[in-house]
Design a protein that fits this description.
Number of helices of chain A: 3
CATH topology of the domain at 42-95 in chain A: Alpha-Beta Plaits
Largest sheet of chain B: 7 strands, mixed
Strand order of the largest sheet of chain B: 3-2-4-5-7-6-12
Structural class of chain A: alpha+beta
Order of helices and strands of chain B: EHEHEHEHHEHEHEEHHEEHEEHEHEHE
Shape of chain A: elongated
Radius of gyration of chain B: 21 Å
Oligomer: heterodimer
Number of strands of chain B: 15
CATH superfamily of the largest domain in chain B: Thiamin diphosphate (ThDP)-binding fold, Pyr/PP domains
CATH class of the largest domain in chain B: Alpha Beta
Helix content of chain B: 25-40%
Strand content of chain B: 15-25%
Largest interface: A-B, 15 and 21 residues
Largest sheet of chain A: 2 strands, antiparallel
Strand order of the largest sheet of chain A: 1-4
CATH topology of the largest domain in chain B: Rossmann fold
Structural class of chain B: alpha/beta
Number of domains of chain B: 2
Number of strands of chain A: 4
Bound molecules: iron/sulfur cluster
Chain lengths: ~100, ~400
């Protein structure tokens, strides 16, 4: 009748006994809107990289190359912070984007 | 240590609060975060003198509220330190939110709770509504009849809380003014004996261990939350064994052994009173008077209230015909006080269970006298005679 509690194998009191494991927790599923990059416009100023609260701006060799969609929550901060003269990021409805292409 | 060797004990006349302050000094916690409130104030006032005199190493943190006092204790305990505090009444009520966090995070914080009534109306005197209100917060609760017991309980509380089979916070309750401000001769243990008994505390995942970073107080969603609570519930239930072990070890070292419950003249008693804290002492005097007249009356005093010593109660009350449970707090359920309800529920499965009634007494410091106790015993004999309880629950003397 009594199922063995799962928490018996978990750290006491809910402590997370290791650091640097936030990456293991995927927050991409929370997303309603999705950022889309226009790489023709982007100057790789990396303001979005600084401002993204989820470290989801991917940068290679100093160039903005896209988004980490496993962690991007779709808050839209990057789109707002991308300088007015550039505006290289647009937020689109996640569902529409699926209908449009992914499925 | 040799059995039953009384240590180099020193007798001293102290108030309950002075004894608690002294015990805290002898334990020398890493952190003490406090906000004063009557009647627990002098515990902290005297302890702060020890801090000022350099008699302890404790980091003494004066905060802006009891909520902050408990929060700071939680932080200190999570950091890996031994944290202590003291409070009463509204102070305990203000700690509410944090009490559950301390127990849920499995932090062995130690608190002296000097029992006092809750407002409104405002009242500074003794009853147990404060600690009874915290009875479901996941803290282990030890109650103390005398200054000696309160002093002894504090050392044991540290050992119980920090035992790796337990890792839960413990509060030691004593009656406001009645015990906290009354001077009593008690036997003290030495500083070295105290240090040796409580030992050192080594936290498993101290936040200050920067080489092994850990996160505490994380979110647990429906897939895990209930499992954490299940483990916590099993841990507090199992802590009874540790309370017994620690009580025995204390007895072995210092000659005063403690169990989960204490009884007086209960073995052959026909009728019994169940009561917590200082009023048990008054009841003992009434028992002596009635026993002198040949009446078989007895007492059961729970020392441990959380976890509830249900099996021990059943064992102790076997053969008793009628019981009155006296509560110094109301649960406003329209069905008696908390102790009444738990004792009554514990006895439900007994083959030959006694008749049980409940009386609320002593709220807001109202006196509980030997005459009160005698009247209860007389009422219990009536119940035995008639086989009937007229009034299941009532307020006594008002
Ligand atoms: S802020 Fe705009 S321009 Fe700058 S890197 Fe990001 S997307 Fe490119
Ligand atoms: S939408 Fe928000 S989370 Fe996603 S990349 Fe932009 S700033 Fe980061």
């Amino acid at each position: 009748m009594t199922k063995k509690s799962k928490a018996k194998d978990m750290p006491l009191g809910g402590v997370i006994p290791k650091g640097g494991n936030a990456h293991d927790y995927e927050t991409g599923g929370w997303r309603k809107f999705q950022p889309v990059l226009d790489s023709d416009k982007c100057t790789s100023c990396l303001i979005c990289w600084v401002m993204c609260p989820d470290s989801s701006i991917m940068v290679e060799d100093g160039k903005m190359v896209g988004f980490d969609m496993e962690h991007c929550k779709g808050c839209g901060i990057c789109a707002v912070e991308c300088p007015d003269k550039i505006k290289a990021i647009t937020m689109i409805d996640q569902e529409e984007s699926k209908e449009g292409g992914c499925e | 240590m040799a059995d039953n060797t009384a240590s180099k004990t020193k007798n001293s006349a102290l108030t309950g609060n002075s004894a608690m302050a002294l015990a805290m000094k002898q334990i020398d916690p890493d952190v003490c975060a406090v906000y004063p409130i009557t009647p627990s104030t002098t515990v902290i006032e005297e302890f702060s003198s020890y801090v000022a005199d350099g008699a302890v190493e404790t980091e003494f943190v004066t905060v802006e509220s009891e909520h902050s006092a408990m929060s700071a204790c939680i932080g200190a305990s999570a950091a890996g330190g031994r944290a202590m505090t003291a409070t009463s009444s509204q102070g305990l009520a203000l700690m509410w939110e944090m009490l559950y966090i301390a127990s849920g995070m499995r932090l062995p914080i130690i608190m002296t709770t000097v029992n006092r009534a809750l407002a409104a109306p405002i009242n500074i005197h003794c009853d147990h509504s404060d600690s009874m209100g915290a009875r479901d917060s996941g803290w282990i609760q030890l109650y103390s009849e005398t200054v000696q017991e309160a002093y002894d309980n504090l050392f044991q509380a540290v050992k119980i809380a920090e035992d790796e089979r337990v890792l839960l916070p413990v509060m030691v309750c004593l009656d406001g003014f009645i015990t906290s401000h009354a001077i009593e001769v008690l036997s003290l243990i030495t500083d070295d004996e105290a240090k040796d008994f409580v030992g050192d505390y080594t936290a498993k995942h101290p936040l200050l261990d920067t080489d092994n970073p850990a996160s505490m107080g994380a979110l647990a969603l429906p897939d895990t939350y209930m499992d954490f609570k299940h483990v916590q519930s099993d841990a507090i239930a199992a802590s009874k064994e540790v309370v017994i072990e620690v009580g025995k070890e204390f007895g072995k070292r210092f000659g005063r052994e403690y169990g989960l419950i204490d009884t007086y003249q209960l073995e052959d008693a026909d009728v019994a009173i169940v009561i917590l804290n200082s009023a048990a002492g008054t009841t003992r005097v009434a028992i002596d008077e009635l026993r002198a007249k040949g009446l078989k009356v007895g007492l059961l005093k729970p020392r441990l209230f959380r976890p509830f010593p249900h099996a021990e109660m059943v064992e102790a009350l076997k053969g008793v015909k009628a019981v009155c449970v006296l509560d110094r707090a109301d649960s406003f359920s329209g069905f008696g006080g908390p102790l009444f309800n738990e004792v009554r529920s514990a006895l439900y499965d007994m083959e030959d269970r006694p008749k049980i009634m409940g009386r609320i007494y002593g709220l807001g410091g109202k006196d509980y006298t030997t005459e009160n106790a005698v009247a209860i015993y007389e009422a219990l004999f009536d119940v035995v005679k008639t086989g009937k309880i007229d009034t299941l629950n009532d307020y006594m003397g008002s």
